[in-house]
């Protein structure tokens, strides 16, 4: 199970800005709180806070990634755990995790 960040969880209200993340060949769009992305990911922190064009457009493109993998990452960012049926998570998301990552 994932451990919480030692810095604690970010407050959504502290940075209500959203980032659009375009993922994969089909260009699936995800809208995610920027504060969560930059708090938990060095990659997004660099892209969105260090003067790159993504910081201005609030859009990051990940052409080489799979949308299913990114969807699981987004779930983890918001919940600090992977999808679990016993927690009431969406059945398709639980199945996606189980099919790809559960041992």
TrEMBL record:
Q: Which Gene3D superfamilies has this protein been placed in?
A: Potassium Channel Kv1.1, Chain A
Q: Which SUPFAM superfamilies match?
A: POZ domain
Could you say which residues form the signal peptide?
Answer: none
Source organism superkingdom: Eukaryota
Which InterPro entries does this UniProt record tie to the protein? BTB/POZ_dom, SKP1/BTB/POZ_sf
Enumerate the spans annotated as BTB domain: 18-86
Record's protein name: BTB domain-containing protein
